[in-house]
Amino acid sequence: MRFTNLSPLILLLILLFGCQTGPQMGKLIKIDAANMNEFWVYSDNNVVSNGLQLKNQSSEITSKFQERNFEFTAKVKTTAGAEGVLVFAIPDGAGSDQGYAIKINNSDYREGAPQKTGSLSKIRNNFVRTAMDGEWFDLGLTVKGNLIKVLVNNKTISEYAEPSNIQRSGENAGKLLTNGSLAIRKTNDAGELLIGEMTLKPLKEETKEEGCDVARDSLMKVVDLLNEQEFPLIDFHCHLKGGLTMEQACQHSRDIGYNYGVAANCGLKFPVTSDSTLNAYLDGISREPVFKAMQCEGREWITLFSPAAVARFDYIFTDAMTWSDQKGRRMRLWIPEETFVDNEQQFMEMLTGKIEAILGAEPVDIHVNPTYLPAKLAPDYDRLWTPERMDRVINALKTNDVALEINARFKIPSITFIKRAKAAGVKFTFGTNNGSNNDLGRLEYCLKAIKEAGLTSEDMFLPRPSKDKKVMKSGLPAKITG
Ligand SMILES: [Zn+2]
Question: Which end of the chain offers a freer environment for a tag, N or C, measured as fewer CB atoms within 10 Å?
């Protein structure tokens, strides 16, 4: 065959690909200390017996290969405080400040950067600790068509479908899928980043959009913008109820661009009633990429658990929907047959007093379903929650360092209440408190609160670090609040 018989296009393809070396389509390549030089350019780091050691801020390795569709894995270990990024889709000739970045950071909550390992930074942020300093973990990345998936220890942490014709600006301008190189860079001076064995598998071109059920509608554009601003979009109040599985909850959280906190109902006649059921529950979900929460039920919960067991949760919360009135009637405010309103003003005084007493006595982190009123009184919410009563609740939150939930399902508290609480310096959380497997929703009311009350990242609660748990400092009250 003579070249002159080939079409110019085929000739071009032969020239482009015929003599190309490097990773082969569909073939898994193992990269370790023996063949590191073949695939990576590195400087300012040392090869140790079990991998590469990135010690200083800006220590970096950059790939010699460029890939558009691929699977990549790396064994990674951080020592105390070390932070870094895995960057991909770095355009030809650009540095690792361009491209998508996956955060590596295993510091405790409220320490180091808020984004933790597996975060697709400023696109789909992750605030949940998914790995620990001092332990090897598997970081995985798949890019296929427009779909990006980030895994830590085989759990999907971030999932994102890059929309077609996406326009990005500012710091995010360089985040676009392309045939690019990879880099791993250390981003602070604390600790060390160790990189062990890596694998790379180039994949065929895919054009079909996969994953992501939620269309990029106006709500998703708001979520995208808040992710860009690193606003902690977290639903702290999700229950595995009505058949909802952990996997479904996690998939939903990725679809809507939020992180989740999954709460166990703990109290009399609830699934978790003792230290042993509590420990078994937590051991069973320890590897799930969600915050682990305790919903303290009724007022009797304080008698059922030890402080050390309670402190194993990332945070604990309670509401003021279950209490006994002056006549000793135990009420559950969401059940009309169990709610007694003899006099509405008297009822409101009692409710406000109960909230103050609960927040003063029980070492909770968040007050959930706040300002909830029984169905009979709900239509008069704005009249009954007078400025004086609002301020009593706000004062109890501030005094006891308790965050206020903005509840997406009940649309409480009112925007007026939220503005008043923000002005007083109260921290907020978002929560759905789903009742089943089909009502997790997309937290529209919380987005409305951000806009109308002007909430910023600084107004939002993040869990306390292990050394700073309220229940370990104050213990549990001797007497139930009633
Ligand atoms: Zn709940």
Answer: N
